[in-house]
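Example S7 (structure tokens).
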């Protein structure tokens, strides 16, 4: 199954514009931190300016370019990125993560209490910046996305070890935890550029759908990827008893006897290599990788459908090109093999 043939032919007109925007964005983001209170400044600069894919600012820009005021798009992108970084600081504390993008996590440098307060400060500063627009729409969009992100985190933490949740519930967690911030990025750009109400709602749906795809991709890589070509630690979801798509699909399609065996394997506190290999054999038996790819493709098809439904031809072309850049990720998924499950431990 492939989704690459869904992409219409779009001229590569946005690359330079996106690159120029991101250069201006990074400069403005750094300048904005000068208003952070002095006790937090060094740590804030470290976590905010450490790089990243900047998907959310890019989506905000592409959803508002060229009709939106450029400075407003930059400022809105800063707001949404600050919320994202704040959530990462808190995520790392909750997960007791040791590294973020190859560097020691901030809570391991300044302590857990200070890291939590740093994240709170970044959230607050983002909302403060959002009040500088002419009306309260930006603040309303960002506040709602922030609330949803926190709700998604709580729901995900509550689901640890609960392999009885449905795939619909799992996708709701992804929607809240990641999707709404993507959705807010798209909706902010569209709102600031003056697209009609249909496109504003559709842009939010596009972002949410894309955020779900982004997380499903990560779940598949975590289970079936290889550390040598994925560039990240793998198997963390399984080892932390987090219910993700591969496990949920396995439990959904296996027979009754295997269901009992699998749930017993998952419920044990020990995740030895032997148990990993047992789960891996069930993945192969029930063709879970291909089921995951089909599920990913169905979600990605929905994202493309929503983009094609936009009234704004310019925004449609902008986002189509952005989505096309994911073709490399899709091709990477197609290189995965069942036997690579938790390769780091097998």
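Recovered sequence:
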């Amino acid at each position: 199954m492939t989704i690459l043939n869904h992409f219409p032919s779009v001229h590569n007109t946005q690359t330079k514009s996106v690159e120029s925007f991101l250069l201006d964005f990074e400069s403005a983001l750094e300048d904005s931190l000068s208003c952070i209170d002095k006790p937090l400044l060094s740590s804030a600069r470290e976590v905010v300016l450490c790089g990243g894919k900047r998907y959310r600012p890019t989506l905000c820009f592409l959803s508002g370019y060229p009709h939106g005021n450029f400075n407003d798009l930059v400022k809105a992108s800063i707001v949404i990125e600050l919320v994202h970084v704040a959530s990462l600081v808190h995520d790392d504390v909750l997960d007791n993560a040791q590294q973020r993008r190859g560097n020691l996590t901030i809570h391991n440098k300044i302590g857990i209490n200070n890291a939590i307060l740093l994240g709170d400060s970044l959230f607050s500063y983002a909302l403060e910046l959002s009040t500088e627009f002419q009306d309260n729409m930006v603040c309303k969009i960002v506040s709602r996305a922030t609330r949803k992100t926190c709700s998604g985190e709580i729901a995900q933490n509550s689901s640890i070890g609960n392999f009885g949740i449905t795939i619909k519930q799992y996708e709701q967690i992804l929607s809240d935890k990641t999707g709404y911030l993507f959705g807010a990025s798209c909706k902010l750009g569209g709102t600031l550029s003056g697209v009609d109400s249909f496109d504003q709602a559709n842009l939010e749906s596009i972002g949410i759908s894309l955020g779900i795809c982004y997380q499903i991709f990560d779940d598949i890589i975590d289970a079936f990827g290889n550390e040598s070509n994925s560039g990240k630690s793998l198997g963390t979801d399984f080892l932390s008893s987090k219910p993700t798509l591969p496990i949920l699909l396995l439990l959904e399609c296996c027979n009754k006897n295997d269901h009992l065996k699998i749930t017993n394997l998952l419920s044990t506190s020990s995740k030895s290599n032997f148990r990993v290999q047992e789960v891996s054999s069930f993945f192969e038996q029930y063709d879970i990788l291909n089921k995951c790819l089909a599920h990913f493709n169905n979600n990605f098809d929905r994202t493309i459908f929503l983009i094609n439904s936009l009234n704004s031809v310019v925004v449609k072309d902008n986002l189509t090109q952005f989505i096309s850049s994911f073709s490399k990720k899709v091709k990477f998924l197609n290189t995965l093999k069942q036997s690579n499950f938790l390769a780091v431990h097998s």
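Notes on this example. Residues 74 and 93 are 29 Å apart (CA to CA).
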